[in-house]
Amino acid sequence: MSAAASEWFSTWFDSPYYHRLYQHRDYAEARQFLGRLLEHLHPHPGARLLDLACGKGRHSRYLSEQGFDVTGVDLSAQSIAHARQFAHEHLRFYEHDMRDELPYGPFDLVLNLFTSFGYFAEEAENVVALRHAADALRPGGKLVIDFLNTDLAIRQLVAHETKTVDGVTFQLHRHLQHGFIVKDIRFEDEQDQPQHFVERVRALTRERFEEYFQLAGLRLAETLGDYQLRPFDLATSPRMLFVLKKQG
Asked: At what angle do helices 27-41 and 58-65 cross, to 10 degrees?
C-alpha cells in the first residue's frame, strides 16, 4: 500500500523547505546518542542493521562507519536519491513505505529513531508497520522505537513560534486535534508564493504502544527516557525509547 499523495509526509518530506526548516538539528548530539545506544545494545561486529525511516542517510552512514552492515529505507524518493551517493558494499538505501513488507532482511537490529513513527491516519497501520519490522528481524533480534514522551510534549506544547531560516520566515502553530499533535507550517517561498504544510504525529501513550507491541508479537525489554539512556519517567523524560525483542 503505497502512500497516497494526500498523506502529509509524502509531500512535506520531499520539500526542500522541510530540510531548510530543520537544518539546525544537532547531528553531533544524535551521533553521540547512537554511539551510546550501540554500546548499550552491543550488536556483534558486522551485524546487519536496518535504519527504518532513514531520511537522507546521515545516521545510516554513521552506523556503517562503526563496522555494521546497514540498510536504510525511507518513503521520500528525494531523500533516498541523496543518500545513495554514499552507498557501498555494506551500506545500501531503498525507497520504502514501512507499511509494506520488508524484503531486505533478516536483520539483527532494526532502528526507528527521532520520532519517525505514528504518522498514519489509520491507527491499524501502525501495528502493520511494527509487524513488518518484527518479521524482518532474526530470531533474538531487537527493534528500537524512539518516540517523544507525549504526556510531557502536550504539557509543554508551544502554540505559536516564528522561525526565520536562510531568509524564509516560517510560522509554526501547534495544537492537539483528534488524537494527533499537529504542527501547522506556513511561509512564503522564494517566489513569494504562500505555502502551507502540516505535520501530524499521533499522540501515542506508553500504554497504547504496549498494546501495539503485543499485537505485533514484540516483547518490551526496557523503556529508556532520553538520549543519555536514563530510565523512563513519565513526568520528566523527553523521550520514550522502547527496546523490543521478537516473541517466539
From this structure: 50
pTM: 0.91
Architecture per CATH, 8-148+204-246: 3-Layer(aba) Sandwich (3.40)
Is 48:158 a contact under the CB 8 Å cutoff?
no
pLDDT digits (tens, 9 = 90+) for 127-174: 999 999 999 999 999 999 999 999 999 999 999 999 998 889 999 999
Average pLDDT, the chain: 92
Sign of CA dihedral 177, 214, 102, 244: positive
Q: Cα(144)–Cα(150) distance, rounded to whole angstroms?
A: 17
Give yes or no for a contact between 186 and 171, defined as CB atoms under 8 angstroms apart. Answer: yes
Please provide the distance, in angstroms rounded to a whole number, between the alpha carbons at the two ends of the chain: 28
Average pLDDT rounded to a whole number, residues 27-48: 93
For the segment 51-67, what is each residue's pLDDT rounded down to a tens digit? 999 999 999 999 999 99
Q: β-pairing, 180-188 with 194-202?
A: antiparallel
Which phi and psi (to 5°) does residue 17 adopt? -75, -25
Domain ranges of the chain: 8-148+204-246, 153-200
Which cell goes with 21?
Answer: 526548516
Contact between residue 83 and residue 57 where contact means Cβ atoms under 8 Å apart: yes
